[in-house]
Amino acid sequence: MNYSRFLTAVSAARKASPIRVLTELQMRSPPSLISLAGGVPNPNTFPFSSASIALKNGGSIEFDEAAMKRALQYSASAGIPELISWMKELQMSLHNPPTASKSPECGGMELCVTTGSQQGLCKLFEMLINPGDNVLLDAPTYSGTISAIKPLGCNVINVPSDQHGMIPQALRDILSRWSPQDAGKPGSTMPRLLYTIPNGGNPTGASMTEDRKRAVYELAQEYDFLIIEDDPYYFLQFEKPWAPSFLSMDVDGRILRTDSFSKILSSGLRLGFLTGPKPLVDRVILHIQSSTMHTSTFTQLLVSKLLHGWGQEGFLRHVDSVVEFYRTQRDAALGSADRWLKDLADWHPPAAGMFLWLRLRGVSDTHELITKKALEKEVLLVPGGAFNIDSSQPSPHVRASFSLSSPERMDEAFRRLSELIKEAQ
Fold first, then answer.
1. Residue 225: is it exposed, middle or buried by C-beta count within 10 angstroms (0-12/13-18/19+)?
2. pLDDT at position 34, please?
3. Nearest CA-CA partner of 295 in 247, 261, 257
């Protein structure tokens, strides 16, 4: 693939930082190397000596003095080597990407660590979106995505979706405005990028079926566009086998996949990873070099020690326990919704994620209902308009999260919401 045609001028102009290159070279060198190159602070001046972090299973993660010195020091912009290698093995095991056998210049699979998947997304958008570009995304969508792409000055084209995710025929209908031969032509307005959350979509809870993914991927091949597969809820799928990912279907090297540990290990550690064709992942790493430099070395080492201690089997056992918790929470939310909202709202049971997407009957727009009247009832949800590109557009939906509240408190919340809807009708 000709990846250069997808890059913004800013991204194409990025060059490797000479200091970062020397620093990372020093990290790979033997102790016999005497370096006077990098402006690296002396770790002997840091006030931290060691740490022991207790785990819920009775074990612990230890940072002796040497490990602590490394954890508090600069590290490679792509991520620390042992964490990258562990996550590459995980991707191979879960997705077996066809691009893993490709050469780097032909879009072979690469991976880098990001400070949460949100950082990866923002850097992808800035790498790929020019002012005036047409960008495809399923609607409604994650408000963080909207906040990231609107300032870039692109034209967002909403692709209709339902409880099974993006509708391929609707996407084909949109793309029929152009001819596949227009791809790559100077001045062509054909979209070069599609964004989707394929599992447990935020806010709808929708999960795309395998058949729909294959149909969307075939359209990407036909019209030569890239797909950002934003999949933070991949590990929160309630039924097995888990749905095949776009990455597992990617024979061309046109998938950029963002994963997150936020939902299964910790949201505050801010650790995610980006997988995609090496020519594009390398561009993201160049941006990291000149912005955050790297994700916290301490965070990376902590998670790396945890994952290596668990192994893949232990990690997936932990994931299963997390899924079981959220499945129980989802079932409690569905039970309460059925108890209090049966004649007042409509919804579909989510197959993954943390959210229940409710369409309120007899309410044309939930913004004022939620932002003003709901507080009087002491119940809080997110009005559906927050997930529209134009947030002032009326929406009869609300998003309810079942991640944090106990089943008893969720039940009371839905009771209060039912009173609110009755008063608004």
1. buried
2. 85
3. 261
